[in-house]
Write a structure and sequence with these properties.
With 94 residues, this protein is of the alpha+beta class. The chain contains 3 helices and 6 strands. Strands 1, 2, 3, 4, 5 and 6 form a 6-stranded mixed beta sheet that branches. The longest helix has 10 residues. The protein is globular, with a radius of gyration of 12 Å. It starts with a strand and ends with a strand.
């Protein structure tokens, strides 16, 4: 089931770099996660992913599982409809 974090969606800012949307990768309990995917607005866990190359999130690999989320997100961010991959950016140390 897709997971969304409304407070992160509310503060989402679309960033396009090298012709792909960017997403910040956070470390959560020793695992990597996208907290707000720029393509669907959902949270995605990253397993065995090379963050130095473009990544196709689950919402693009299995869009039928994210149908409602994709429709809602595309109404807010129609510019992302054309993309199937994203750039992963490590979170800045705080």
């Amino acid at each position: 089931m897709p997971t969304t974090l409304p407070h992160l969606q509310k503060n989402f800012k679309l960033v396009i770099a090298d012709n792909l949307p960017q997403s910040v990768v956070e470390s959560v309990h020793d695992r990597l996660e996208i907290m707000c995917c720029p393509l669907c607005g959902c949270n995605h866990q990253l397993i065995g992913v090379d963050i130095s190359v473009p990544y196709s999130p689950l919402c693009q690999i299995q869009p039928v599982l994210f149908k409602e989320q994709l429709l809602s997100w595309h109404k807010l961010y129609p510019d992302v409809i054309q993309y199937k991959s994203i750039h992963l950016q490590p979170a800045k140390a705080s």
